[in-house]
Amino acid sequence: MKRLKVLTVFGTRPEAIKMAPLVNRLEQHNNIESIVCVTAQHREMLDMVLDLFNIAPDYDLNIMKHGQSISDITVAVLKGLEEILLKEQPHIVLVHGDTTTTFVASLAAFYQKIKVGHVEAGLRSGNIYSPYPEEMNRKLTSSLANIHFAPTKENYSNLLKEGVDGKNICITGNTVIDALLQVVKDNYVFHNKMLNDINYEDKKVIVMTCHRRENWGEPMVNIFKAVAEVVENNRDVEVIFPVHLNPHIRKLAQEILGDSCRIHLIEPMEYEEFANLLNKAYLILTDSGGIQEEAPSLGKPILVLRTETERPEAVKAGTLKVIGVSKKQIVEEVENLLTDEIIYRQMATASNPYGDGKASDRIIQELLNRIST
Ligand code: UD1
Ligand code: UDP
Fold it and tell me: What is the domain partition of the chain in residue ranges?
């Protein structure tokens, strides 16, 4: 029997975290020839994940440039993939989620009439400018994909509503749970001494991240000022904020939060360290997509610094609240969770709408069933 040739393409930290368990399993499978191409839309933040999951890419487009525009990424990925696809002629290209790497890799495969499998398909906020450009990237990728791996029933319904044929959609759970279950451990010891020294019982540790393009400018200023105010008002609060390597964000974070006591601005964390920090946190404050899926599994209240979410499952589960980007609202919502035990307990309930850690196995089974070699 001819082996199924699968070319997996990804480029940023979240894609790498969520594709890593799948790549590990593809590589172990006897009936699959797995090839990995990273675009390196992110460099350092991608390499940290590749190291953790022992992935050595076959191709590395190495496209990251500081301050790169979305158009720069688009052109470099499209051109870079052309030759690789021509040479490798895989049976299918796998992409993940909603970054510019995702959309452009799908387009490059389509141009050569190569099938596309979209992992984490069907998430929708309903607003093409929020998250920007991710909502459009997802929609465009859905138009180009031949198989849609939808994490949840809601994602499946979103695709049906847009006219995708139900027989081309498989509900698999989210591979982020596969990754999370692999790294989170009770009694985890951090490599970073500062994180080991914190008393997580006495302190209320808020883990924060913030990077979305639609929050650049005034919304991000509001978010940072709100956090500074909360810390000023609550002496038992410590904030750990691993700051994204995007220079826009680092500058602003340093300007507004750099001098606040009990706010630790640190470098992006290795995934194993970060996931275990989430597991010890009191609450999570973020505009990230992936963290909205991890927090419910860990039973951590999560306040989302955005005006809408494409992850309504976690809102229904009760762990997640979308609180917007006004300073007043953020301060009020965080202080509610710091002071009202009943509200806190209601939100700190472990529930896992995103899967059982077997999403990668389901995806591989579907690939083998559906693609003839
Ligand atoms: C990208 C994705 C976004 C995803 C996010 C995850 C697009 C348009 N955006 O946004 O969907 O949620 O990744 O983090 O696809 N940088 C480094 N080293 C790194 C990573 C980034 O120095 O390892 C700096 C570079 O200066 C780079 C900048 O951050 O130019 C922005 O990176 P980019 O990939 O363009 O956008 P993100 O905001 O990271
Ligand atoms: N993450 C990490 N180190 C950090 C911050 C986040 O490993 O310092 C992980 C986090 O657990 C999640 C993913 O990175 O799995 C989210 O990435 P990001 O917020 O950059 O992108 P998004 O999910 O918003 O697309």
Answer: 4-173+357-370, 193-349
Domains 4-173+357-370 and 193-349 share a fold: yes
Burial of 146 (0-12, 13-18, 19+ CB in 10 A): middle
| Nearest-ligand number for the alpha carbon of 276 | 2
* CATH ID of 4-173+357-370, from 3.20.20.190, 3.40.50.2000, 3.90.1150.10, 3.40.50.720: 3.40.50.2000
Is 17 a pocket residue for ligand 2 (Cβ < 6 Å)? yes
Q: What is the pTM of this model?
A: 0.97
User: pLDDT, tens digit, for every residue of 318-328?
Assistant: 999 999 999 99
List, for residues 274-306, the tens digit of each pLDDT value: 999 999 999 999 999 999 999 999 999 999 999
Cβ < 6 A, ligand 1 pocket: 12-14, 41-46, 64, 66-68, 70, 73, 99-100, 133-134, 211, 245-247
> What sign results for the dihedral spanned by CA atoms 164, 321, 242, 350?
negative
The rounded distance, in Å, linking the Cα atoms of 223 and 288 is 14
**pLDDT tens digits, residue range 123-167?**
999 999 999 999 999 999 999 999 999 999 999 999 999 999 999
- Mind telling me the catalytic residues? 98, 120, 134, 211, 213, 244
Which superfamily, per CATH, for 193-349?
Answer: Glycogen Phosphorylase B; (3.40.50.2000)
Question: Which atom, in ligand 2's list, is nearest to the CA of 288?
Answer: 24
Per-residue DSSP letter, 325 = S
Identify the DSSP state of 238: E
- In short, whether 96's Cβ falls inside 6 Å of ligand 2 is no
